Amino acid sequence: MANAQASPRKMPKLDPSAEANGDSQDILEEIDAIQTHLDSLNDKASDEILKVEQKYNQMRKPHYKKRSDLIAKIPDFWLNTFMNHPQIAALLDEADEEVLRYMTQLTVEETEDIRSGYKIIFEFKTNPFFENTQLIKEFTMSESGDMGTSETKINWKPGMALTEKNGDNKGKGKKRDRENEPPSFFSWFEDSSMGGDEVGEVIKDDIWANPMQYYLDLDEEEELEDDEVEGEEEDEVEGDANDGEEE
Predict the structure, then answer these.
(1) Which residues have a Cβ under 8 Å from the Cβ of 4 and sit 6 or more positions away?
(2) In whole angstroms, what is the distance from residue 133 CA to residue 125 CA?
(3) Would you tell me how many other CB atoms lie within 10 Å of the CB of residue 174?
(4) Tell me: the pLDDT tens digits for 137-188?
(5) Distance between CA atoms of 193 and 180, rounded to whole angstroms?
(6) CA–CA separation, 237 vs 94, rounded Å?
(7) Residues 70-91: pLDDT tens digits?
(8) Greatest CA span in the chain, whole angstroms?
(9) N or C: which end of the chain has fewer CB atoms below 10 A?
(10) What distance in Å separates the CA atoms of residue 176 and residue 161, rounded to the nearest whole number?
(11) How much is the pLDDT for 126?
(12) In angstroms, what CA-CA distances link 62 with 59, 148, 162?
């Protein structure tokens, strides 16, 4: 979605009795002209940045695909990744975690223009909770800048609906007393009002960007320490090589 054109600015009215009123008005008009030119440059910069983002999004796709294929071979990868993320972990309980054991893939797909939205796709192997093999939540930005969502309807198996309150269904299963507990994480797929934007942004910008960080439960300090160790090792290797050349 292209940036909206900057609306003309209203020039302030000056007191006719003020000294050098004409000079001040000329200066204000000159400042306004400069600002208009800056706004035009900012719009052009945004368009150029968007083109670069689109280019690199396409370049990342084969790497994401290869990464996803490898991740699918690791048992409970996404379960552990979600449990180690502080914001997502706060939304999970034991029943949600049990469902996530069957999750095999996570994919984030941005729209071609990037700015108008994205979709998040969870893929599952056959499981005792629902019939779906995919759960999708799509975020779409309207012309007015409001974010709307559309969600997959979860086809729960009898008695296994984690998003229903206890007593809504007579089936036996993993349901809990929802009157006194927070909603299931999977309510996010059924309720567009459940902090959708925040959860979606965390998954897109944080977990999808670098899931290994959370699977291995690395914090920023540990990553910095690893980088420092690698740097020190490289320095030692370079130092040894230099010593050998001197001899």
Answers:
(1) none
(2) 6
(3) 16
(4) 999 887 777 788 889 999 999 999 999 864 444 334 454 454 567 889 999 9
(5) 20
(6) 48
(7) 999 999 999 999 999 999 999 9
(8) 85
(9) C
(10) 9
(11) 97
(12) 7, 29, 35
